[in-house]
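A reminder from the course coordinator: this example appears on the midterm review sheet, so study it carefully.

Given structure:
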């Protein structure tokens, strides 16, 4: 009755995924999207009819689960099948992905917070006069080495995954004072044909905890709005300093990513 059919690429489920994305109340942040890019893709067939898809990574973590409305009444049966047949052992669910969230609650054994998802509160942010002399510009390949030197944000955690490509795509901004690199910010497209941009920042270690990160996020928001983009952001649940920086810059988090174990 239920068949899970492997497909070669994301393009094979793109039509279904476009419907899924259009039904979501918010665009997801870039970290979630990047996990989709490295997942394995499967069509869900019920009585020989394709009714949905799943994205599952190499560690058997489910990142997306979509069913057409005609198959919604079979959602628990299909989800239980995925668990019992050992397709999945865990899931990362956005709290605004109502179907996946509900199914995870039905079958989970453990749950914990994984990440915060932020949207701009649209409150007026005080002008940071102390940083009015900071220069913001698009990064060039000449900035590669100094940006690489500030790339590490924690032990075994790097901010840039592919710095040269990000620079080439004009997604990286550098922030300087008296020609000294204070930090960098990114503004990245999440989905094609969508105006949401994921923004983030990294600050040189010697300039951290001085408000530079907050200033960078504020300027990235201004850049987004000036170019008719909607800024979104996210941070890991354990990253308290990033959470506070985003909140100081006017972001609020009404949604989370929850990790479930089955």
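Designed residues:
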């Amino acid at each position: 009755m239920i068949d899970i059919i492997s497909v070669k690429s994301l393009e094979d489920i793109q039509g279904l995924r476009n419907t899924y994305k259009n039904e979501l109340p918010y665009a997801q942040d870039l970290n979630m999207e990047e996990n989709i890019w490295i997942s394995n893709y499967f069509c869900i067939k019920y009585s020989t009819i394709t009714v949905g898809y799943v994205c599952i990574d190499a560690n058997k973590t489910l990142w997306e689960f979509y069913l057409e409305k005609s198959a919604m009444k079979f959602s628990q049966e299909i989800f239980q099948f995925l668990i019992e047949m050992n397709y999945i052992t865990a899931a990362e669910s956005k709290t605004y992905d109502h179907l996946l969230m509900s199914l995870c609650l039905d079958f989970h054994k453990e749950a914990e917070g994984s990440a915060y998802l932020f949207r701009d509160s649209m409150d007026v942010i005080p002008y940071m006069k102390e940083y009015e002399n900071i220069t913001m510009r698009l990064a060039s390949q000449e900035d590669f080495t100094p940006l690489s030197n500030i790339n590490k944000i924690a032990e075994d955690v790097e901010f840039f995954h592919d710095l040269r490509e990000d620079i080439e795509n004009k997604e990286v901004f550098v922030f300087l004072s008296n020609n000294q690199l204070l930090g960098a910010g990114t503004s990245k497209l999440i989905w094609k044909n969508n105006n949401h941009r994921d923004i983030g920042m990294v600050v040189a270690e010697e300039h951290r905890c001085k408000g530079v990160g907050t200033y960078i996020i504020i300027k990235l928001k201004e850049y987004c709005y000036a170019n008719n983009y909607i800024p979104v952001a996210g941070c890991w649940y354990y990253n308290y300093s990033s959470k506070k920086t985003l909140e100081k810059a006017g972001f609020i988090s009404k949604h989370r990513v929850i990790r479930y174990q089955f």
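The chain has a mean pLDDT of 93. The radius of gyration is 20 Å.
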